[in-house]
């Protein structure tokens, strides 16, 4: 570990770090706001929270596509050698599943909203096209899927953030700082 500290691992690029933290900030707000609106806990803020949840969810789609294309064309620097194979596998599987859910979850929310059908505006600027024909039963089914995928994301994020904090506070090996520069 001391050796690792003398030779801190290389960081993710500025673009990768900016995309990671922008998307992370949005997703970490989407989950609690989703739970608030679905359970009608927003009081007078219920309608604005609905609009914010859907608008930020739509905004995520191009951001995540940009991030995945960038990731596929820019391999990040390798993890330091001391990280055991089992932890690499755990981290890589978590990251892979998060990428899948980052694409699927907003699409499921958009499809469910379209099939309901509920017209909504992108940050009050323009109406977002509905991408599924009206079908209330299918919409309810998709909102059920949206709930379970949201819970799966929350569970993966607990593991992900726990792993990041383990490197920051216990291992102190510079792996956390790969994402802070
Ligand atoms: C407090 C919140 C978070 C912290 C502290 C954090 C920390 C980190 C760190 C340190 C890494 C680099 C791991 C490495 O060196 O291999 C990383 C990578 C990653 N994070 Fe996070 N993260 C957070 C939130 C999120 C959220 C909300 C998401 C997605 C919804 C996310 C998705 C990812 C993905 C997909 C990677 C893999 C990057 C790649 O190699 O392609 N993170 N995160
Ligand atoms: C990564 C992006 C997203 C995440 C993490 C997310 C997460 C969640 C969560 C956890 C819930 C609560 C589910 C429940 O308790 O039943 C929820 C509800 C909801 N989401 Fe999302 N969501 C995302 C994107 C979207 C998008 C793009 C839309 C629509 C365009 C959307 C529309 C909704 C609606 C309308 C509800 C309320 C459902 C109801 O009233 O039962 N979401 N979301």
Give a summary of the structure in a few sentences:
This protein has one domain: Fumarate Reductase Cytochrome B subunit, CATH 1.20.950.
Task: Explain this structure.
The protein is an all-alpha fold and 181 residues long. It has one domain (2-179): Fumarate Reductase Cytochrome B subunit. Helices cover 69% and strands 2% of the residues. Strands 1-2 form a two-stranded antiparallel sheet. It is elongated and about 55 Å long. The relative contact order is 0.17. The model has no long low-confidence stretch (mean pLDDT 95). One protoporphyrin IX containing FE (HEM) binds next to helix 2, helix 4 and helix 5.
Task: Output mean pLDDT.
Answer: 95
| CATH class term | Mainly Alpha
Per CATH, which architecture? Up-down Bundle
Give the tally of β-strands: 2
Strand-and-helix sequence, N→C?
Answer: HHHHEEH
Bound molecules: protoporphyrin IX containing FE
State the main characteristics.
181 residues, mainly alpha, Fumarate Reductase Cytochrome B subunit, two-stranded antiparallel ribbon, 69% helix, binds protoporphyrin IX containing FE
């Amino acid at each position: 570990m001391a050796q690792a500290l003398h030779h801190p691992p290389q960081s993710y690029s500025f673009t990768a770090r900016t995309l990671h933290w922008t998307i992370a900030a949005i997703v970490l707000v989407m989950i609690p706001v989703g739970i608030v609106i679905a359970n009608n806990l927003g009081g007078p803020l219920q309608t604005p929270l609905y609009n914010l949840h859907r608008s930020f969810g739509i905004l995520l789609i191009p951001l995540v596509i940009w991030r995945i294309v960038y990731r596929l064309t820019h391999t990040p620097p390798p993890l330091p050698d001391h990280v055991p194979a089992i932890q690499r596998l755990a981290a890589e599987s978590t990251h892979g599943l998060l990428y899948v859910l980052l694409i699927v979850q907003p699409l499921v929310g958009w499809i469910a909203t379209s099939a309901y059908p509920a017209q909504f505006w992108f940050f009050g600027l323009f109406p977002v096209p509905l991408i599924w024909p009206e079908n209330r039963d299918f919409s309810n089914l998709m909102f059920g899927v949206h709930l379970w995928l949201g819970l799966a994301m929350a569970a993966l994020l607990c593991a992900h953030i726990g792993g990041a904090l383990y490197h920051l506070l216990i291992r102190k090996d510079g792996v956390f700082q790969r994402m802070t520069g």
